[in-house]
Design a protein that fits this description.
By secondary structure, this protein is α+β, with helices and mostly antiparallel strands. It has 4 helices and 17 strands. The protein has 2 domains: 122 residues, Diaminopimelate Epimerase, Chain A, domain 1, CATH 3.10.310; 133 residues, Roll (Diaminopimelate Epimerase, Chain A, domain 1), CATH 3.10.310.
Length: 275
Amino acid sequence: MQPIAFFKMSGSGNDFIIIDNRQAVVPESRLNRLIVGSCRRRMSVGADGLILIEPSDNADFKWRFFNADGSLPDMCGNGARCAARFAFINKIADRQMTFETLAGIIEASVIDETVKIRMTSPGELKTGITLDLEGETILVGSINTGVPHVVSVVDDIEAVDVVARGRLIRHHPDFAPQGTNANFVAVDKNGEILIRTFERGVEDETLACGTGNVAAALILAHDRGLASPVSLTTRSGGKLTVHFDKQTGAYRNVFLEGDARVIYRGELWEEAWRS
């Protein structure tokens, strides 16, 4: 098998392997092995997910986005920004573009290293949800921003065991069978919003989650009356900004803005993902 050209990119610390698959360079019969193998940390390239850029009849291109475990979520905000910049760099699309995802058509604008994407309309926002976590009762909010998210407001973001608590929320019976992503947010003494996320499919804390930032911003806007735009500081230290219009209790025209950095480009050899 010939080496496969790829970009390694990062959106606020959420990192991805991106491959131009318009000429079907990735064999379908070995796709899952390639995804899981190449996303392994230390043993291969390492990434939170893998993105295939493919032809579309309805937009500039279509993507297939995979979590590191090979699962296929509907949407990824940070991945979408990276895919858009990849498409612009490789002359697949202009600065203003559209592309197909399982969540719907995404619009994107590329400005240097920053990309702003229009999110699909979020699902119903719910707050005041009571969850029992091994005997402890907490209140959370939930919303689908392309994928399902739970948001828990905490006093001390550093004191949260994101992996342990996030795993309990991710697998909670109330969100079965598909599960949910879990976000923890705190507002510090300077008014800065801090967020940490346990991502379904990665099954660990990630340095950033675009759809999670959108979920947190909308739930905080609902509960605390925050006006658009809302900026949040991710675990990587990078900032993501969420723009939105509030219309009769619902949120529309939701945009996610942040960096989409090229880390390096290379060729993926078969031995890099072979078990």
